[in-house]
Write a structure and sequence with these properties.
Layout: H1 2-34, E1 38-39, E2 45-46, H2 51-63, H3 68-82, H4 89-94, H5 96-115, H6 124-154, H7 161-184, H8 196-216, H9 228-231, H10 236-267, H11 279-348, H12 352-375, E3 381-382, H13 383-392, E4 399-403, E5 407-408, H14 410-429, E6 440-447, E7 452-459, H15 473-484, E8 489-495, E9 498-506, H16 509-518
Parallel strand pairs: 4-6
Antiparallel strand pairs: 1-2, 3-5, 6-7, 7-9, 8-9
């Protein structure tokens, strides 16, 4: 088994590493060429968002943390291509990828271990872990490694270390919150159940987002009398709407769209954020994306929890209906059996006391079987334990059982219990057990291929000579139960030497196969 498992893991690794490396290389290359740089507090050009941080972490989540070499390879190649000929190309190509790799790997490992195999976007606790562990702990750790190594190699002034570290971590943190949800949300999250109303809501929501973002980031700065900081939050209710109505997927799409339009609008020099100057421009843009992303992730997770709770309630309601239907069915069957017992007792009994003994004995047999099934939580029970329980109710029950071990499902166990009670009662009143030295031998032979069980009931003592016993309603009850409930046949034979009965029934495989599998 081990030899077949390892090549599979190795094959997945060989497939995953090139995919991660290619995705990392393409993402970083496009970022270097298309995403604008801003000047922050460190007076160095900074990217407002570093998409590779989110893409790398999402791919490692999907393909496995063992694919981390792809992040290292892709980052190194992208940095070499972007900074070739620069004096610091070696430090960026060799040292910066270490931080990127640690960041993505650590984020996935922390999520895997704290979410216990669950999806981080399906619960509020998972979303909080995504923000705190993957978003903060992992990015801070990776950024600390990269910035520290770059400062050591390039001998930069350590006074700029805190500001560079903050801006580095913030751009990666925002990327994790924006790109990880929209990539991993399509695996492990239940798809949206589309209806006409929900489709209309989606169209209205999409149109509203486009209109609001187009108005917010238009060619001139809107609403000069409104400060730009609160103005950018005008799209927040729409993100809230997307998450509450369409779950994690809707929130992820809305967050990605608003973040993209904000960056593109600011890059083109339009919108309220562009009216700011210096580091304030970068801070407001990142704060805007950060608030939108955090709200979207949390609201989407709450919506998923609500949907899971609703589905759980629906399943519970369906189970309750099934339980009540089954209970009603069993109660009706039990009442029908009791009515049949009462009617048969009238014909079999010779006196009031005899009638009372017959009816009470049969009811006690049914009750004993029901007690056994209840103790087993209505799971299959063995024929031997059923016979031992029924025989224990009768005095002088000298019964020997030999042969295969057989399990019976509840429906068959109830019928078998009634049959065994009738056989033991007859043996005690008229047959072998009425004799001081008499005994009963039960032989069981089960064929697993056909699921057929043969039962041989043999009584070894002669009948009472003064009693001329003729089969009555009890024997007809046995034949009816064998034919209807056990799907078999009964051959009942009574001779002066004793009774010999043979039964052939079909055992439900649902009860018998688990026993064979268990050994």
């Amino acid at each position: 088994m081990t030899s077949t498992h390892r090549p599979s893991k190795r094959g997945e690794l060989l497939k995953g590493v090139p995919i991660v490396a290619l995705a990392t290389f393409v993402t970083m290359t496009l970022t270097f060429r298309m995403v604008p740089q801003f000047y922050g507090t460190s007076e160095l050009p900074v990217y407002p968002i570093w998409p590779a941080a989110g893409v790398n972490m999402a791919l490692l989540w999907l393909l496995g943390a063992a694919c981390w070499p792809g992040v290292l390879i892709g980052s190194a190649l992208a940095n070499l291509l972007a900074f070739w000929g620069e004096p610091y190309v070696i430090s960026y190509a060799l040292l910066s990828p270490l931080g990127n790799t640690i960041e993505a790997w650590l984020g996935v490992v922390l999520l895997r271990r704290t979410c216990n195999g669950g999806h981080p976007l399906r619960s509020l606790h998972g979303a909080a872990r995504l923000i705190l562990l993957a978003g903060i702990v992992a990015t801070v750790t990776g950024g600390l490694v990269s910035v520290t190594l770059i400062h050591l190699v390039e001998t930069r002034h350590w006074a700029t270390f805190p500001n560079i570290l903050l801006e580095w971590n913030l751009s990666s943190f925002i990327a994790v919150l924006v790109f990880v949800p929209i990539i991993i949300v399509w695996k492990g999250i239940r798809p949206i159940r589309w209806t006409g109303t929900r489709l209309a809501q989606a169209l209205v929501l999409a149109l509203s987002l486009v209109v609001v973002q187009a108005w917010l980031f238009q060619s001139h700065t809107p609403g000069m009398w409104i400060p730009p900081e609160p103005l950018v939050l005008i799209s927040l209710p729409l993100v809230f709407w997307a998450g509450s109505q369409f779950g994690a997927a809707g929130a992820a799409i809305a967050v990605c769209f608003t973040a993209t339009t904000a960056i593109v609008g600011t890059m083109l020099g339009v919108g309220p954020i562009d009216s700011l100057s210096g580091a304030q421009r970068l801070i407001v843009l990142q704060a805007y994306i950060l608030i939108i992303a955090v709200v979207g992730i949390l609201i989407g997770a709450v919506s998923c929890e609500r949907e899971d709770a609703r589905r759980s309630l629906e399943r519970r309601a369906a189970f309750d209906r099934l339980l009540f239907d089954e209970l009603n069915h069993r109660v009706r069957n039990t009442l029908a059996s009791l009515l049949s017992i009462v009617e048969m007792g009238k014909r079999d009994a010779t006196s009031v006391e005899d009638y009372s003994s017959l009816v009470i004995g049969r009811i006690h047999a049914m009750a004993r079987v029901h007690d056994m099934l209840t103790d087993q939580r209505w799971k299959p029970i063995s024929f031997r334990s059923l016979l031992a329980s029924i025989a224990a109710e009768l005095p002088q029950a000298r019964v020997q059982v030999e042969g295969d071990k057989v399990m019976l499902v509840p429906a068959q166990a109830v019928a078998a219990g009634m049959i065994l009670h009738e056989l033991l009662t007859n043996a005690h009143r008229h047959g072998a057990l009425s004799h001081p030295t008499g005994s009963v031998r039960v032989s069981l032979s089960y064929d697993p291929l056909t699921a057929r069980l043969r039962i041989d009931w043999t009584e070894s003592a002669p009948l009472k000579p003064a009693v001329h016993w003729q089969p009555g309603d009890g024997m007809r009850l046995i034949e009816g139960l064998v034919r209807s409930d056990l799907r078999g046949s009964a051959h009942l034979e009574i001779t002066p030497e004793g009774a010999h009965h043979r039964f052939e029934i079909i055992v439900d495989r649902e009860a018998h196969e688990p026993r064979l599998a268990a050994g």
